[in-house]
Structures are given as C-alpha cells and as structure tokens.
Amino acid sequence: MKKDEMIKEAKKQLVRFQKEIDEIKETSSHLSEEAKKKFDISAKELEALYNDAHTKFDALSNKAEENFKDVKEFVELTNKALKHSFNYFMSHYKKKEVEADKSTKVSKK
Asked: What end-to-end distance do the CA atoms of the chain give, in Å?
C-alpha cells in the first residue's frame, strides 16, 4: 500500500468512528444527567483526538515518498491508539446503557 492510500484509509477509519459516535449521541438522551455529562466530556475528548489525527495525516500527506516508512509507522500507531480510545469509550457507554436499561426495567415493575 502506498503512502497516500494508507493515509486515505486512515482518514476513512476516523470518519467511521465519528459516525458511530454521532449515532450514539442521538440515542444518549435516555442516560441520567450525570452519565450524559460524562458521555459528552468523553465524546469531546475523543473528537479532539480525531481532529488532531486528521491534522497530522494532512501534514504527512505533504511529506516525500522516501519518508514512507515513518508515515506508515505513524499511521499504524495512531490508528491503534484511536481504536483503543474508541473501544474504551464505547465499552464505558455500553455499560451505562445496560445499567440504564436495568434501572428502567426495575422501575416499571
């Protein structure tokens, strides 16, 4: 895979992560006020990471092809870090969602 293709794929992954976060934001209204605040803070932190990655990917696009190895390593490392952050964020949110569902079911009984 060439440098430009790798950066393009990395940017596509960022867009996919952002879409998932946006979808979750739309459904987060059922969270308690405290959980919603934590969710919003975490989402903003993750979005800041994505914006930073986009900026760095743009800068890497302008580097010469001979720096391909550096670019490849950076893209791979960044993707791993962002995926880890995204998965951590999602696991925390899903745990809150399950807790909210349980409390809703208990209160209906």
From this structure: 57
